[in-house]
Amino acid sequence: MTDATDRLVVDINRDGARSLAVPESVTVDRSFVVDLRNHGMATHVHLHLDDALSGVARLSNANHHVPSESTRRVRVDIVEPSDGDYAPIPGRLKVAIAYGQETRFVDLTVDLSSHEPVAVDPDLAEPRGGSGGGAVTTTPGGDRNPPGAAGGPSPLARSRTLRLLPAVVLGLVAVGLAVAAVLPAGAPDLSLGGLAVVAAVLAAGYLLLS
Known about the structure:
Helix content: 10-25%
Largest sheet: 5 strands, mixed
Low-confidence stretches: 131-143
């Protein structure tokens, strides 16, 4: 813009009656204000955006009466391109005073290239480390290992061991009772044998249900 306040300054009657001074060229990347500064007698000002700019710029009003020694501010709204093309658009802003007795043109370029959305590579959104879902860890030496590959059994293996532990205990009890029922002299102890059978059945049932 012509200054740091997003204003395009137009000086009217500054250098004499019906004089008109505008910047030669301006590049904008956002909405701005046309500052109509009248240094003399009251006048009529007409603003017009050409066809090239009409797709991305909107004047709040085209015709303005500017009293003497006063300033009128006219907003120009810049809109995002509807076709997704963010290439700079050059055009011209027409400024006329006193019903066309003096006319100037400003080379106006709307450059919205900095507004263009950044395309994201879909591969970067995919989680790394394979389809197993586990996080990949990096050892101090730089080796990449899945969880549980080193340093002892994995949580899954430990869980299976804990589930089988009751069955193992019941099996050992059944074997012990069976041995105790047979070893004494004389006829086998039927009560101990019955308990051994019960323990064996419980162990087998637990294995089936787990």
